[in-house]
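Hi team,

As requested, here is the filled-out complex form for the adenosine-5'-triphosphate run. I kept the field names the same as last time so the parser does not choke. Let me know if anything looks off before we queue the next batch.

— J.
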Amino acid sequence: MTAQSTFRASAALDAQDQNVLPLPHATAEAVPDTMVKPGRLGAHVQVDALTHRYKGMSHNCLEELNFQVEAGQIVALVGRSGCGKSTLLHLIAGLMQPGAGGVYINGNRVRSTCPRWVVMFQAPSLFPWMTVAQNAALGLRFAGRTQEIPKRIPSLLAMVGLTAYADRNVQDLSGGQQQRVALARSLATEPDLLLLDEPFSALDAFTRRALQQDVRRIAKELGLTVVLVTHDITEAAIMADRALIMAPDPGRIVTDTVLDPGADRHRDSPAFEAERARLAALFETTA
Ligand SMILES: Nc1ncnc2c1ncn2[C@@H]1O[C@H](COP(=O)(O)OP(=O)(O)OP(=O)(O)O)[C@@H](O)[C@H]1O
Ligand SMILES: [Mg+2]
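And here is what came back:
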């Protein structure tokens, strides 16, 4: 898989469904000096009667999934290994097509990938011979939007805390810093949906916590909808507004719960710990 295909979507919506709903920021103007767009809406996601079976398998990987994600909401998909979390994320992204049912983003049936929704994986997939700024600009370059690079990349690097590293080669960066470059690259094309497949799991605990809090802050500032796949209950409690707990064989959603761990979402606060413990107990009894 190329670096391009691992992080960036490239095609479009099904033509026959194009007119179901107006696209949310077709008329969005460029905002100088900041990535924040007050009033901008993230994507609405609807998963409708979704069933999927891999070729050659005797049973369904996912069966009859039905849920919606509101614009601007951060949803964690939590489940044990093999329950179908990545498969579901790939189906939402349009990286593959379901056997039955469908995914609708802003009312449009997803038939393939699209630059308005981006996927971040565990490995940052950067080009090692390029600088931080050049890697961050790749999405814009691939989209033919090179004129936006001088304005957008500095503010994006500031947002992810890498201004001082702009001209450094990415090979000189730590794993956490490289994942921040991947985040800047994902955000550069102004997606309205961020799909995260355990993007912090290879990082040390301290770096992971910092990124979890930063990604939530950035998503809220930008009004992004986020679907986050994770094994980590604490990660879900820190980052998500809502958790969908999945069970395996066949993969399905068994619990849908709103998370309210206190305003600061700080690991040491009693409200956070109570919410984390509630989610952990739900996971143990249902997953
Ligand atoms: N390409 C494939 N062909 C056949 N079966 C597959 C394929 N990819 C995944 N599977 C199977 O589908 C099921 C769900 O896999 P998936 O990768 O979606 O799980 P997951 O919840 O993301 O697991 P993990 O937490 O380990 O990443 C597993 O049983 C897996 O073996
Ligand atoms: Mg997975």
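Two things worth flagging: Residues 1-39 have pLDDT under 50 and may be disordered. The beta strands are 45-52, 62-69, 74-79, 100-105, 108-109, 117-120, 193-197, 225-230, 242-247, 252-258.

Thanks,
J.
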